[in-house]
Amino acid sequence: MELTYVTIIVLASMIFVLAGMIGYLYWQQTRMLQHMQSLSTFMASQFTQPPEQEEVPQPPSEPEPEHEAEEDDRLSVDEKVEVVEGPPPPKEEVDIDDLQSKTATQLRELLTEKGIPFGKRDSKPVLLQLLKAIS
Prior knowledge:
Elements: H1 2-47, H2 51-54, H3 77-80, H4 104-114, H5 124-134
């Protein structure tokens, strides 16, 4: 029984010593950070110039004439004209009966042309349903 008491006392004292060492390290770290902060504050105050010295005198500016010829930087009407030769070509109407004979790749191309979103792994029946829904 005495051996277990001795073991418990030794373990408790080791835990107490380790806790004391951790507390001491934390205290030392806090002191060091305070000293570094005060040192950085001192260095910043010594190596920055006061605002009065940073200002550079500017030479006096010349007065601007009130009535100058202004350039017109707007585009003229001639530059904006676009030549349109006719209406856009009509889009081909898709025959629903003809869709059965097309491949899945062709169906995806049709959906892409019409701007309809579809899944990359959609099967042919799903693509057909999408095309039939918009027709």
